[in-house]
Design brief:
Radius of gyration: 20 Å
Shape: globular
Strand order of the largest sheet: 1-5-6-7-8-9-10-11
Oligomer: single chain
Number of domains: 1
Structural class: alpha/beta
Distance between the termini: 17 Å
Order of helices and strands: EHEEEHHEHEHEHEHHEHHHEHEHH
CATH superfamily: Metal-dependent hydrolases
CATH architecture: Alpha-Beta Barrel
Largest sheet: 8 strands, parallel
Number of strands: 11
Length: 370
């Protein structure tokens, strides 16, 4: 069992909870999930959260000192995190104070959390040196947070993509010196570059060689201006950006060229579990670049893993049915969603004790080599 909840450090501005994402229920013509007569909560089993975000103070300060994007702008009792002229997110204390995160973990009996920075990423800086330096600052901040609470946090790196040699060196530093376990990459690098761009090949090769998982994450995209109204980006646009990035890894031949590359496509696989059959069908008929892959797209998709951040019980059950417990890991996406919400959705699943253990920790231990 984890230690007793810690008291969060005193804070100077009001915590205002924000629930940014809307529910989305996937439906299909597949047979219903198998039903088992067993409880999901296993005594003495470990709980690992593979997607949760923390913004280190040094990263906040570095972005607050900038006049260009990405930048932080102080509001009355929080920060606006500006990724682009059309995208900003409110960063409140739960995103900034690691002790608040730890207390929430303790309340939900989460033993280990994999922490990453959130939007905006360092790759958005137009100056290559600035991008690489922001990545270093963010990664060092995550490492410092993890060092304050040994055994409770592991870092997931972010990179600047300013200079590819420097980018690969920073990944090596994060793995070798900071003991990080994964790399978070946004769906569009720098908010505009495709993930299967040939310039990224050295990085994918390094990840595959080192066995370090690639964690896809939505972020600014060319569609950003269309997402301005009604919070459409976080609600649904992000999921399609994630899906397109995953398809580029498949159809662009990245997974063909790097068969050992491990990929986490979060949020229940975004929309791809629902549409992968359509992709197979149309790919075999109409795609011109058939020489980049040698199998059906669904065979590459079978190598993807996912997490439980789907916002509805129906979507969670669908994703689990399509991808299986051996490819699914618990995650909260905190602070955007309370950890309790996704823990309760896990508890509501009617699955075997063995599958519950896989989702809570077993799959993550194997995938991230924890």
């Amino acid at each position: 069992m984890p230690p007793a909840p810690m008291t969060a450090t005193p804070v100077v501005f009001t915590i205002v909870s924000s629930h940014l994402f809307a529910s989305a229920a996937f439906q299909g013509n597949n047979p219903p999930c198998p039903i088992y007569d067993s409880t999901i909560h296993l005594e003495n089993s470990m709980r690992i959260d593979v997607q949760t975000h923390h913004v280190p103070q040094a990263y906040v300060e570095a972005l607050a000192a900038r006049s260009d994007f990405p930048r932080y702008e102080r509001a009355e009792d929080f920060w606006w995190a500006w990724a682009s002229p059309s995208q900003k997110l409110p960063m409140r204390l739960p995103a900034l104070d690691i002790d608040i995160k730890l207390a929430e973990m303790d309340e939900q009996e989460i033993d280990i959390a994999l922490i990453s920075i959130n939007i905006p990423g360092p790759d958005l800086a137009k100056n290559p040196q600035d991008a690489d330096e922001l990545a270093r600052i963010g990664n060092d901040g995550l490492a410092e947070a993890a060092a304050r609470h040994p055994g409770r946090f592991r870092g997931v790196a972010s990179l600047g993509f300013g200079d590819m040699d420097a980018t690969c060196r920073e990944l090596e530093r994060c793995v070798n010196e900071l003991d990080f376990v994964g790399l978070q990459v946004f769906a569009y690098i720098g908010g505009e570059r495709y993930i299967d761009d040939a310039a990224n090949e050295p990085l994918w090769g390094l990840l595959a060689e080192r066995g370090v998982p690639l964690v896809l994450h939505p972020g600014p995209s060319p569609s950003g201006p269309h997402y301005e109204d009604h919070w459409l980006g976080p609600m649904i646009g992000f999921m399609f950006d994630e899906c397109l990035a995953a398809l580029r890894l498949i159809l662009g031949g990245v997974l063909e060229r790097h068969p050992d590359l491990k990929v986490l496509l979060p949020h229940g696989g975004a929309s791809l579990p629902l549409f992968i059959g359509r992709v197979d069908n149309l790919s075999s008929r109409y795609r011109e670049d058939q020489d980049l892959i040698t199998r059906d797209p669904s065979e590459y998709f079978a190598r993807f893993h996912t997490d439980t951040v789907v916002h509805s019980q129906t979507a969670l059950e669908f994703s689990l049915r399509e991808m299986g417990a051996s490819r699914m890991m618990f995650a909260s996406d905190a602070p955007w969603v309370p950890v309790k919400r996704h823990a309760e959705m896990m508890d509501a699943l009617d699955i075997s004790a063995e599958d519950a253990e896989r989702i809570w920790s077993g799959t993550a231990k194997e995938f991230f080599e924890l």
